[in-house]
Design a protein that fits this description.
This protein is mainly β. The protein has 2 domains: 62 residues, no CATH class; 106 residues, Tumour Suppressor Smad4. The chain contains no helices and 19 strands. The protein has a 6-stranded antiparallel sheet with strand order 10-9-19-18-15-16, with no helix packed on it. Strands 2, 3, 4, 7 and 8 form a 5-stranded mixed sheet that branches. The protein has a 5-stranded mixed sheet with strand order 12-11-13-14-17, with no helix packed on it. A hairpin with a 5-residue loop joins strand 2 and strand 3. The protein is flat and about 60 Å long. 17% of the residues are buried.
Length: 204
């Protein structure tokens, strides 16, 4: 019989979900005690993404997996490199970076990589679907568009407000229908009651 290791500690979020504040090794068996009823729940991580278990008392406990260490892994031997002549500094190429839209809270945080061209963000609606659909009744259908275009220095990300039954805020400043603004890394976008964040990452 395999020995199961207890995992913890548990942290309660504002949404009432308990989160295990340590990562579970993929394939390894753990157990955690429900903080509400005391039942022991089995935890087996199958992926590095967020997962959850639900107790019979309806308590939700979320956790995240981590890769198991490989027995073949070994520390690399330190190599002594021969001395080289000083190299001349070369001009660095500009790196093109992807734009991402992120929203939600860990461990249910969501992310969307923007594509070249039009990227519509709006309320989830089958009759008028958006590229990024948000389950928020205070957000307009097809509310904003982020146009991605290529330039010599990388990509430009231009946001335009299409519909705004409720105000659209960029970094706390209200923007009316028809207005446009170029986004920078770390900018915040508020649609209805949902806060989104625009971030840049290097292309792989």
């Amino acid at each position: 019989m395999k020995h199961k290791e207890e995992i913890g500690p548990l942290v309660k979020t504002k949404q009432g979900i308990y989160v295990i504040n340590s990562k579970a090794e993929i394939g390894k068996e753990y157990f955690v005690k429900c903080p509400v009823c005391g039942n022991e729940l089995d935890i087996v991580a199958k992926k590095t993404e967020a997962d959850k278990v639900i107790c019979s008392c309806k308590t939700v406990i979320a956790f995240v997996g981590k890769p198991a260490p490989s027995s073949e892994e070994a520390e690399p031997e330190e190599k002594v490199e021969p001395k080289k002549d000083t190299e001349k500094i070369q001009k660095r190429k500009r790196i093109k970076r992807n734009g991402l839209i992120q929203w939600g809270v860990w461990p249910f945080k969501q992310s969307y990589t923007l594509s070249e061209g039009s990227n519509i963000i709006g309320r989830t609606d089958k009759s008028e679907p958006s590229d990024i659909q948000i389950k928020d009744s205070y957000v307009s259908r097809r509310s904003v568009n982020i146009e991605v275009s290529e330039s010599d220095g990388g990509y430009l990300f231009k946001l335009k407000v299409l519909r705004a039954a409720n105000p659209v805020y960029i970094n706390g400043h209200e923007h009316d229908e028809g207005t446009s603004i170029y986004l920078n890394d770390g900018d915040t976008i508020r649609l209805g009651s949902t806060k989104l964040r625009f971030v840049l990452e290097d292309k792989t």
